[in-house]
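DM from R.C. (forwarded with permission)

"hey, sorry to bug you on a friday — could you get me a structure for this? deadline for the figure draft is monday and I only need the backbone to look sensible"
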Amino acid sequence: MSATNRGSKRIASDFYATPISVVEKFLDNYAIKPGNILEPCAGNGNIIAAIRKKKYKNHITAVEIRGMEKDNLLNNGANIIYIEDFLNYKPPVEYKTIISNPPYSIALDIIKKCFEIASGDTEIIMLLRLAFLESKRRHQFWQGHPVNELHALSERPSFTGKGTDATAYAFFVWNNSSKQKINVI
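My reply, with the result:
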């Protein structure tokens, strides 16, 4: 996801690699649950690589629509890889954590699918633009799915390697907590 050069042509499949350092910073401030992890829009595996760098031993399943990323996903620490559209994915196991940086153009659909496959104690973590909180189209979603934690990035990331992005981002966390928390990381 990237808002850099909004007037220019988008990258194919809306693929903008998540900087590993951004995920590491989040993981310095949030502990992932023990249990199976799902990365539903795994891209090249940078989120998985960051989880592994932080020494998490959880079993990680990666779902990625672009087959060319299979070797990257294996090298970055995915245990199982499905090359398919996540919106059609039927999970064979229960996941305790679902974490991703979904393509912004379909982020709401991805998040809804995550809620559809989540069990009662699954935490869902999404890296999104802060502006994802806005829009009439998402208003009803927010009424039924209030975010529990918002970890706003204090520095704008670069998803293209060509300078930082033009918008603010945060990790949105739904974890069934009765408390809401906002943290700037």
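R.C.: lifesaver. Residues 1-7 have pLDDT under 50 and may be disordered.
me: no worries. The longest strand covers residues 123-129.
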